[in-house]
Amino acid sequence: MLAGAALASQATPVFAASSSYDADAIVVGHGLAGLVATAELAAAGRKVLLLDQEPEASLGGQAFWSFGGLFLVDSDEQRLMGIKDSHDLAWQDWLGTAGFDRGIDDPSGGSTSASTARSCCPA
């Protein structure tokens, strides 16, 4: 909360492309880590350019989409509660619920669908 307040008080948001921008630092990604980095730099008096592919309405990166939830696999808590879990099961659950809106980048230059993501990006 304090980092957000610091950022808000020292930042001038610009959500449109510009041909030129002078900055001391560039932060890529407006997820939680990017916002904290931006807030710390702004608090130190630096002029920061924060870039992200998502629109202003999605500020927060993956935390915006996950509603702040955590994704844990085969944790102590799960084992204590008798919940059987594994990386393979978690991967299958994630592929089934991730709601991909674009293909997963393929190192060969193309993209792949969620159904072939397992071979591209092993857990």
Question: How many helix segments?
Answer: 6
Mean pLDDT score: 75
With strands numbered from the N-terminus, the spatial order across the biggest sheet is 1-2
Shape: elongated
- What is the H/E string? HEHEHHHEEH
**How many β strands by DSSP?**
4
Distance between the termini: 33 Å
Tell me about the largest β-sheet: 2 strands, parallel
Strand-residue proportion:
5-15%
Structural class, please? alpha+beta
Q: What topology emerges from the helices and strands here?
A:
Blueprint: H1 2-10, E1 25-28, H2 32-43, E2 48-51, H3 62-66, H4 76-80, H5 87-97, E3 104-105, E4 111-112, H6 117-120
Parallel strand pairs: 1-2
Antiparallel strand pairs: 3-4
Explain what this protein looks like in three dimensions:
The strands form 2 sheets. The protein has a two-stranded parallel sheet with strand order 1-2. The longest helix is centred in the first third of the chain and has 12 residues, at 32-43. It has 6 helices and 4 strands, in the order H-E-H-E-H-H-H-E-E-H. The protein has helices at 2-10, 32-43, 62-66, 76-80, 87-97, 117-120; strands spanning 25-28, 48-51, 104-105, 111-112. The chain starts with a helix and ends with a helix. It folds into 2 domains: 2-64, no CATH class; 71-120, no CATH class. Helix content is 37%, strand content 10%. The chain has 123 residues and is of the alpha+beta class. 8% of the residues are buried. Helix 2 (32-43) links the parallel strand 1 and strand 2. Residues 114-123 have low confidence and may be disordered.
